[in-house]
Specification:
11 helices, single chain, 72% helix, mainly alpha
Length: 228
């Protein structure tokens, strides 16, 4: 592609590519939470894809904002300050896109700092902040469909596929959560430790101690004295 055509290409597709990448990040993030089907290695792979697509979303987002400002489709103030130009009409939709951008950056930052939150025992706070990606995705959908020019057919189809992918991933996650055994239930490989046979062995009375006189006779005949 000619360099002169790159700004025009990003002007038309940068926002869509950012949304598609964000959708992939959300879907792979949901997949990576599975513990019933995926093995630990598969979960690590899903987390890697989740992070890679999130980085792509950030890159396309920066390109989208830069091109829109450079082409005078919006102002720097409107791109940085949500609803700086207004809260109704196109200005409100641009402000919604700015909010989506900040939420995406927040979700990405908390994802990079996950270990720091876990080390301080703030897993619940991390989940809440990282969950801003869902709000960013919803705001990006509304912004993309209404803020700019009338979307082409392939753009509308891309947005529909994004909605379908996230909805499907959410349904699968809820279904897996319902199938997950309750907390405290014995796992299959622990059945040998919790079954009736193990309980009988555990509750069986201990063998009575051997009389001291018997130990003395055994020691006198040369047998080892096990009481020492």
């Amino acid at each position: 592609m000619d360099r002169m055509d790159l700004p025009r290409f990003l002007d038309h597709t940068g926002g869509v590519l950012a949304l598609v990448s964000l959708t992939a990040a959300v879907v792979w993030g949901l997949i990576a939470t599975d513990r019933l089907v995926l093995s630990p290695r598969a979960r690590l792979l899903a987390q890697g894809v989740h992070r890679a697509t999130a980085v792509c979303a950030l890159g396309f987002l920066l390109a989208h904002i830069g091109v829109k400002v450079a082409e005078a489709h919006t102002t720097t103030t409107a791109a940085l300050l949500p609803f700086a130009s207004g809260i109704t009409g196109r200005d409100g939709l641009v402000g919604l896109g700015t909010v989506a951008a900040y939420l995406l950056v927040l979700a990405a930052a908390t994802g990079a700092l996950r270990s720091a939150f876990a080390a301080r025992g703030r897993a619940r706070r991390w989940r809440f902040l990282h969950g801003c990606a869902y709000a960013a995705w919803c705001a990006a959908i509304l912004h993309g469909l209404n803020a700019g020019r009338a979307p082409a057919g392939w753009v509308t189809a891309s947005y529909a596929l994004c909605l379908t992918a996230v909805a499907g991933a959410l349904v699968l996650r809820v279904a897996r959560a319902r199938r997950r055994p309750p907390h405290g239930r014995a796992r299959p490989h622990d059945a040998a430790r919790t079954g009736p046979a193990h309980a009988a062995r555990r509750d069986a009375p201990a063998a009575p101690p051997r009389p001291a006189a018997l130990d003395g006779r055994l020691s006198a005949h040369g047998a080892p004295d096990r009481t020492r």
